[in-house]
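Handoff note, outgoing to incoming analyst
You'll be picking up this chain. Sequence as last confirmed:
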Amino acid sequence: MNDLYDRHRRVLPDWLALYYEDPLEITHGEGRHVWDPQGNRYLDFFGGILTTMTAHALPEVTKAVSEQAGRILHSSTLYLNRPMVELAERIAKLSGIPDARVFFTTSGTEANDTALLLATTHRGGNTVLAMRNSYHGRSFSAVGITGNRGWSPTSLSPLQTLYVHGGVRTRGPFAELNDREFIAACVADLRDILGHTRPPAALIAEPVQGVGGFTSPPDGLYAAFRQVLQEHGVLWISDEVQTGWGRTGDNFWGWQAHGQHGPPDMLTFAKGIGNGASIGGVVARAEIMNALDANSISTFGGTQITMAAGLANLAYLLEHDLQGNARRVGGLLIERLRSVAAQLPGVREVRGRGLMIGIELVRPGTDEADPKAASAVLEAARAGGLLIGKGGAHDTSTLRVAPPLSLTVAEAEEGAAILEHALRSTY
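Most recent structure output, in case you need it:
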């Protein structure tokens, strides 16, 4: 057992998940690669859980953080903060939400907590609609709306949560329907739930479910939901913690694949915007954001050092059209992986869009999840010099592929070749 792992086990919680039989320490990174203490180099196809969005050690971000650190690191929200105002202005404009206000937090969990506080206060009730197979964070209220048993350690919650169908296209009672019929069935399910409960405050949904294995509904589902929700005054919160900033390639925000009836009332963001700096946040219409009737602050949300990182990272993303790169390179990578999967009985489906790709594994000849195979592929990929993730819920096992959005075609081909070898060595 390596010494660091031994020390980790003595002082950190048993429930703190680690990948690999011999857990990996990452000492440094550059571009799309990271290194361990032994000098082994890995192509990073998971980006610290979709967080290293542009590149490791991106010079523009490093420079901005270094210069800001030389001025002031932190002052709290009790004082005017120029970098926070500048980033908020840019995000408000990009969000597509009219009369938008932005509140910064330190994580996606805290962002979703804040959105739930705003929704329940604005609507005057604590009933919330969420999607089956969802994940929204690790706090008490976020766990209370998480529809994924593997990441829900308690049934206690400050909220009454009702789960609706639609987040998973190829499993469940509506899987055999075509897209139009699928949407109609999910809308009927939503209407039925609304007839049996007090008026909910909001529906919170990930356009592409992250921890759940990169599952998603047909485009337009949440637009159809929105029509029903508006009839009842129910808010729509789009959890963009993993789908935001152009990762899906086709759209800058995941909600835009469902935007036929306008933007969500709120969206939450985190992960990629900071490229590793701790930034999360909520964008909401002013009437919702300003619904709180008590004072509030944030000690660390929007602190100058993280805002400097976010500003530099966002500027790089936009100037280099990384959304377009995600669409082009991600499209090539998905097709390459689908061609491999077609030859392997243990791969049920390759799904996703842009650089957000899921590979669902099953026991050959069945439709049953194969978590041991997922772990074996993870180990084999690491041995070949590639880091990927895994996820899934309700008897599913999925490999998660989500490289930095600056991934090159050559790196996509290299990673696909390593992953192909890892899959073939397992099945």
